Amino acid sequence: IDLDTARQELEEFIPHVKNISDSSIKKMAGRDLMRFKEFKKQGIAVKFGRFTQKENKQIQKNVEDFLSLTGIDSAEKLLFTSRYPEDKDTIHRLKTEHHFCEKISEGIPRPWRLIYYRARKMFDPNNYKGRYTKEEKEKLKMYQALHGNDWKKISELMSRSNLSVAMKFSEIKSAINYGTWTKEETQKLMNAVKEVMRRKLKTENPSSLSSLEDSNTDPWIDREKLYQQLPWTEIETKVGSRYWRQCKQKWNSILTSKLTKGQQLHRGTSGLQAKINLIKRLYETKAEDASEVNWDELSNAIGDVPRAYVQAKFYRLKVSSVPLWKRKTFSEIIDYLYEKKLPEFEEEL
Length: 349
Hints:
Residues 124-172, 173-255 form the Myb-like domain. This is TTF1 factor. GO terms for molecular function: chromatin binding. This protein is an all-alpha fold. The chain has helices at residues 3-11, 22-31, 33-41, 53-70, 75-79, 88-97, 100-104, 112-123, 134-147, 151-158, 162-172, 183-204, 209-214, 223-226, 232-239, 244-260, 268-285, 295-302, 307-321, 330-348. The chain is built from 20 helices and no strands. It is globular and about 70 Å long.
C-alpha cells in the first residue's frame, strides 16, 4: 500500500492523521490498518484517551500469554530489552518470530503505539516508587547537569521511569511559587497559552489565523480548540514561577470561569435542570467506565463549559447523592442516579 492511500484509509479511524509524519504512517499501515478494519466490521470504534480497567486487564493477559508462548522470563525483559544487553538478540528474534506487535494489541481497538506505551507504563518496575527523597532530588539535579535532558540515560541511573525523572526535574529546577497566583503570573500564563495555540492553529489551518490576529477578545479560539492537549512543560518555561501541573490547573480554572460567563449553574432551577440533564446524558451513553464517556459532548448538557467542569459536577453529584459510592462501579453509580435520584430532582424541579 502506498503512502497516500495509507494516509487516506487511516483518516477514517484517526481524524488527526494529516499531522502524523510519513514514517509513522508507514508503521501504522503495517501494524494498525487491518486491525482497525476488523474492529469496524464488528461495529467497534477506534479509541483514544484513558485506558479502561477492561483494557488494562487485556494488556496484562496479552503480555502474560506472550511470555508463556516465547519463554521470555519477565515482562521487564520483553518491554525494556535494552536493560538486558546479553539477552537482546534472542528477545528480538523471539518477538519477530511470534509476531509481538499483533499479539500485544489483540482485542484492543487502539493504535499499537499507544498500547505498547501503556504496557511499558504498567510493567515498568521503576514506575511506582513513591516520593523522591532529598538525596534523590540532589542526584537528579547532578545527573541533569551532566547529561542534559537525556531522560532515558538519567532514568537508568536513578531506576525511575523516563517520565518520572523529566517531570520531577521540571518541578524542582527553579524556585517555585506555591501561593496565590498574581495578576502578572496569570497574564504570563494566558500569553503563553495564546502563543502555543496560535502556533498550533497556524500549522493546522493557516487561514483561520487572521481572525485570531484581529481579535483580542476572550475566548479567542473555538471552545473545542481549548480542550486540546497543550505542551505544558513549554508553557511552564514561559511562566517561569510555576511548574507545569500548576499551570494546567490554573488554565482549567480560567477556562471554567470564562466559559461559564458568570452563569449560576449550581443554584435554583438551573442547577436542578443541569443535574437532570447530566444524569440522563450519562445514562444514555451506557458507559461501563468513566474513560468511555465523551466529556466534551456532555458539556452541552449543563451549559457552555469545559470538560473539567462537567467532571467536577459529576463528582459532586455522586459524592452527595450515592451512598457507598466508592464501593460501586461507574455503571452502578449511573444506574443509581437514574433510578433513585432523577425522579427526586424532577419532582423538586
